[in-house]
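Listing S7. Sequence submitted for prediction.
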Amino acid sequence: MKDTSPEVESYFNELIMKKSGQERLKMGFSMFDMARRQVLASIIKDHPNADLNEIRREIFLRFYGQDFPPAKQKRILAQI
């Protein structure tokens, strides 16, 4: 779904491109950190008794689970 007008999208892109590479990189890190915190909060809410390894497995599945075929995913999870 795309609900942003082309004019607003163009203006937003212009503002972003005015930032330095370092500023854009910091923004990306900040967004990833926020997403990770939200995922972690959701995992803890859904699995309040999960240990650290279970939490790590869930984080992997939520961020990267769709990137691997089931057999590879299973091998990765076994090593976490």
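Caption to Listing S7: primary sequence and predicted structure tokens for the chain studied. The longest helix spans residues 21-46. The chain has four helices and no strands.
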